[in-house]
Amino acid sequence: MIPVVATIEEIRQSVRNARSNGRTVGLVPTMGALHEGHVRLIRACREAADFVVVSIFVNPTQFGPHEDYSRYPRTLDDDLRRCSEGGTSVIFAPTVEAMYPTGSLSTYVEVPGLSDILEGASRPGHFRGVATVVLKLLNIVGPDLAYFGEKDFQQLLVIRRMAADLDLPVVIRGVPTVREADGLAMSSRNRYLGPEERKAAAVLSGALREAVAAVSAGERSTGRVRQILRSRIESEYRARIDYAEVADATTLQPLDEVGGNRRAVALLAVRVGPARLIDNALLPEVSDADQVAEKQTPPGGRHGE
Predict the structure, then answer these.
(1) Residue 134 has pLDDT above 90, yes or no
(2) In this structure, which long-range contacts are made by residues 93-101, counting pairs with CB atoms below 8 Å and at least 24 apart in sequence?
(3) What mean pLDDT do residues 57-80 have?
(4) How confident is the model at residue 290 (pLDDT cuts 50, 70, 90)?
(5) Domains 4-175 and 188-284 share a fold
(6) Annotated catalytic residue within 38, 66, 126, 303
């Protein structure tokens, strides 16, 4: 049985015991409602660290006033099984009172530039809550490594920037998005979807596949790639676009063209029924040589074809 601890002192003592035996420590922060994507995170952490801490905490400070904090799924019994599958050493499941003993904070972490666009613009204050609670967890556990899913692409960039800017002694690693058979990215919020909404939600991954295929076929205009994303999603009447963007994969700033020295990423936030779903895909790299060849191609095709 995996031990479950609820206080900061208990988890720190568990980590001290592990380190006294020469173990490296990894952390997988979660909000519970675990699925196969989380299990992959835990397994990746287990491959690199001897002692794996999984935190389960539905963090109130990253939810807006009209968001789903109160109904966010809490499934601790099933989460214990998932943690066991991945090879967890200990679960840290603190109460809100343990994490925020005074009921509120005077100190928050802000990551300007990365945290006030896209998700940050749609959910003001969200990344302030994320960055703050992640920093608290890193300070409490003191891991050598911490693992996050690439489905939350912007979140991963925010946390990496925070860790770098504050010289935190931890390696932040991303793990690729895990998908259902039809391409839908695994998410704890997928359980909000009814059967028809679940089918409709596959439009997100379908739109991303079309965008990737267009760039692979030679499309370079991010404006046209955005239109591909929007057209595909708008073809599903149950889907309502929050944003559908193409941005620099490091800074998340808008791009006019795919290519050069900057990798591009397509990012989506779409409402389907009661669920707000996010997804993303890195677009194919385009080398400078490819771009030069395209500009020199005669109107009739490459080499006069």
Answers:
(1) yes
(2) 93/4, 93/5, 93/6, 93/32, 93/55, 93/56, 93/57, 94/6, 94/7, 94/8, 94/55, 94/57, 95/6, 96/60, 98/6, 98/7, 98/8, 99/57, 99/59, 99/133, 99/136, 100/60, 100/61
(3) 96
(4) low
(5) no
(6) 38
Domain residue ranges of the chain, discontinuous segments joined by +: 4-175, 188-284
Give the pLDDT score at 302: 36
Spatial contact of 172 and 144, defined as CB atoms under 8 Å apart: no
The tens digit of pLDDT for each residue in 179-218 reads 999 999 999 999 999 999 999 999 999 999 999 999 999 9
Query: Which pair of structure tokens corresponds to residue 209?
Result: 């596949």
For residue 171, what is the enclosing H or E element?
strand 171-175
CB-based contact 298:226 (threshold 8 Å): no
Residue 66 bears catalytic tag: no
Q: Among 168, 12, 151, 147, which residue's Cα sits nearest to residue 87?
A: 147
Q: Do strands 239-248 and 264-272 pair parallel, antiparallel, or not at all (unpaired)?
A: antiparallel
Residue 301 has pLDDT above 50, yes or no: no
8 Å CB contact between 193 and 170: no
DSSP state of 272: E
Q: What is the DSSP letter of 64?
A: -
Per CATH, the homologous superfamily of domain 188-284 is Pantoate-beta-alanine ligase, C-terminal domain (3.30.1300.10)
Mean pLDDT of the 67-74 span = 96
Instruction: Identify the architecture of domain 4-175 in CATH.
Output: 3-Layer(aba) Sandwich (3.40)
